[in-house]
Amino acid sequence: MNFNLSDEQNMVKDSLARFVADNYDQVARNSAVANEQGFSPDNWQTFAELGWLSMAFDEDMGGFGGTATDVMVVMEELGKGLVAEPYLATVLLFGGLLAESGKGDLQQELIGRLIEGQLQGAFAYLERQSRFEITDICTTAQESSDGFTLNGEKTVVFNGAVADKFIVTARTAGDQCDEEGISLFLVDADAAGISKTAYRLMDGQLVCNIRLDNVQVGKAALLGEQHKGYDVMQPVIQRAMIALSAEALGIMEKLTATTVEYSKTRKQFGVAIGSFQVLQHRMVDMFIAAEQTKSLLYRAVCSSDAESSEAEKDVIALKVMTGRSGKLVGGEAIQLHGGMGMADELDVGHYVKRLMMINTTFGDADYNERRFSALG
Questions:
Q1: Torsion on CA atoms 368, 204, 185, 113, rounded to nearest 10
Q2: pLDDT in the model for residue 6
Q3: What span, in angstroms and rounded, lies between the C-alpha atoms of 88 and 94?
Q4: Is 206 left (phi over 0), alpha (psi -120 to 50) or beta?
Q5: 1, 45, 55, 343: which has the fewest Cβ within 10 Å?
Q6: Residue spans per domain, the chain
Q7: What top-level class would CATH report for the domain 231-375?
């Protein structure tokens, strides 16, 4: 099987690597995370101008290609740079749901604005009681003659504090945890009845909880078929899990390289600590963990692009491996850097915090291991 990237994908990979090297050191990243948007609007516009925001969409939607391989290329480089811009939230989740829900005028318009960097979006799907179960939904949408009335609360909405529009999951039929009966609604962030509470997660990203009190939306706000929202969500979340694993791989490769380099300069007992065999073994373990993740990532990408019947199982296995490997690599990186590994002045701790958040997004390793076992 050919795992080589195309010329276009290599060009994107190289341009992202140059952007990170030239413009995205730790000081710049911390400055972007600390501002009121939680990222740099200038960087986001650069992403649009260089075509990176179009990578995840099909050509007939104005995009570059839309394959899992295309997204993997982008996310791995974003991971290496610990890039804070909301690529996952706006492009892959919000944009992905728009694309998956149909190719009508509304989708074309919004995706066009997104690709141009003029629209920020968020996917509001988690609730306080749901933990990792995306079908556990208490938010309701009551249908009327001219639209729907939404009531409920959503938590940990990525990019929700600055999003222009939300895609909200709400129950229109069925019991609380049923796959059937979930519907997706496009809601303006400033619609009457919406209140937001913003806060930051441990990796610095800005998220929010939103409350919907009798929020009125028209019939056109329904994305896809009524009661069939899970069928739209499932492939988008599957692709997002691959993307998160690619980001995690980039972080693991960065941490491994940083740790190896540090071991060559840090001296103990008059010699570089990299000369100690026991520490060499631990760094080899870091390398192997990253390589195992890469192997499963390639398998999941190939399955997804080929629309294989094994794709779901491959993606879940990848998420388990990403969580396990990320914990090993992150822990070893901190330990081998000693007390410096925990200091905010060094980027190692920031990378590890991001790995921890990736592990919990769409289910941690333990949760997905149980899902994998249930598939048989």
A1: -120
A2: 86
A3: 8
A4: beta
A5: 1
A6: 7-120, 122-228, 231-375
A7: mainly alpha
Nearest C-alpha neighbor of 135 from the set 98, 180, 187, 173: 180
Six-digit token string for 275: 């000369």
Q: Map tokens 């992905």 to a residue.
A: 96
- Could you tell me the sign of the dihedral formed by the alpha carbons of 297, 122, 110, 134, in that order? positive
Average pLDDT in the chain = 94
How many other CB atoms are found less than 10 A from the CB of residue 48?
Answer: 16
Please give the Cα distance from 139 to 186 (Å, whole number): 14
> Per residue in 162-172, pLDDT tens?
999 999 999 99
Assigned token pair, 173 = 């039929």
CATH 3.30.70.1140 fits 7-120, yes or no: no
pLDDT of residue 100: 95
Which tokens belong to 63? 């995009």
Residue 103 — very low, low, confident or very high, per pLDDT cuts 50/70/90? confident
CATH class of the region 122-228: mainly beta
Phi and psi, residue 24, nearest 5°: -130, 55
Query: Residue 342's pLDDT is what?
Result: 81
pLDDT tens column, 117-169: 999 999 999 999 999 999 999 999 999 989 999 999 999 999 999 999 999 99
